[in-house]
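seq:
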Amino acid sequence: MSKFLRPLEIPLTEAPEPSVRPGEAAVHPAGTPPDSGELTDSSDSAASVASAPALPRSRRGAHIVVEKLGKSYLHGGKALPILWDIDVVMEPGDMVAVVGASGVGKSTFLQLLGTLDLPTSGSIRFDGEELTTMSAARLAEFRNRRIGFVFQFHHLLPDFTALENVMMPALIQRIPTERARRMARDILGRVGLSHRLTHRPSELSGGEQQRVALARAMVLDPSLLLADEPTGNLDRTTGEAIHQLFLALNREHGSTLLVVTHNPDLAALMPRRLRMIDGGRLLPEGHPGASPSGTHAVAAPDPVPPPDAGAAP
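struct:
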């Protein structure tokens, strides 16, 4: 098994790191205590988050440097290259959309960046730390603390409430239960779900489920937020509201954000857009070589997120 896929090898030590970083003010639900101020729809949630004071982005987001990144799979006894020689730099607080035809390797790239899979070659440096040489235990702890995930399917645990689902990454990080509960309640208030804390996923609408997944991804204030078709399962109206909420909340937290999407409306909201073309190359949108082509590479299947992933405990 790849060292990137051993999620529970976490040192059994309680994390002493405070939820509020030095020099930064604590964030509470806009205008109300965490237990009140119920918001009833996603558009209200987005407006609430957008009205909150922005936090310093340069202190929050990760600086990502990807060099000569490659990934191949064995197929019929032969190596099938999916990605090769990818070079990309994301500055702290960057908001990047990756678009492209189905099958060119967008989700594979996101899996590698999130340490859900092991690259065949190349380097990924995260705030100066090389991810590809980390031990399995260090990777698990790093991924849980520093990276948040939002997938097309919410991956909520069905037998747990919204509050408990959002608490999970903090509990895995050995954060004390009461503090984890406060953190989860606060971020659920930010996405307009203070009135849904005790509801299980089956008792929530599709849009509410995805808002819980977003809250879970953000509860540990990750330096990097990765999203793979985050509104692909939602109707257009709900999806547009989630787009606005997603971006407003990310601006508030200042995470570096990478979104893989086929949705042109979501991609258009991102300040920076990259197109992945056949051969797994990433080019700036508008580059002469970035026009869609007709042949597709074979991408890896979507992963089942590990329990330590910020959006999929």
